[in-house]
User: What shape does this take?
Amino acid sequence: NNDIIFVGNLNERKNPMLLIKAYEKINDYNLKMKIIGDGHLQFKIQNYIKDKKIFRFVSILKNLDRNKVLKSIGKSRVLVLPSNYETFGVVIIEAYSMGVPVVMTDSLGVRDLNHKDCSILVKKKNAESLAKSIIKVLKNNHFRHDKIIRHYNKNFSPSVITGKIEKLYSS
Assistant: This one.
């Protein structure tokens, strides 16, 4: 099981280094963090976590098939999306579908996905704020599995999305 999970490309846009710096500020190395992704920042990230001696608590996985990624999200206590910008944030919907709360940085593409029972929106490029929000989710029973799944089913389930599309095309 993971406490914290990141899923995305390891590049400047997805900004995984912000999450690693936030993780350092949490200062609770009993928390396990999994980073799933690949990209040109991979070696920089690996060297950073090695230099900071947090490699026993932070793992980086790449080339996982979609089912393994979804399973990993489902076994996590919080998904963190520290992106500088997003177009939509499919991984947020995937986390919601499994009842996993999300901490995300504020950007146009994810702002509409934020919901008080499911996620926290934090300022971009602010590791301190990101760390505090991660701790809040991990220590707060407000972000309950059943509430998050209910929100997903009401707003993002395949049947709801299909209905919205059908309504759009019939009008």
User: Anything to note?
Assistant: The beta strands are 2-7, 33-36, 58-61, 76-81, 102-105, 119-122. The first strand starts at residue 2 and ends at 7.
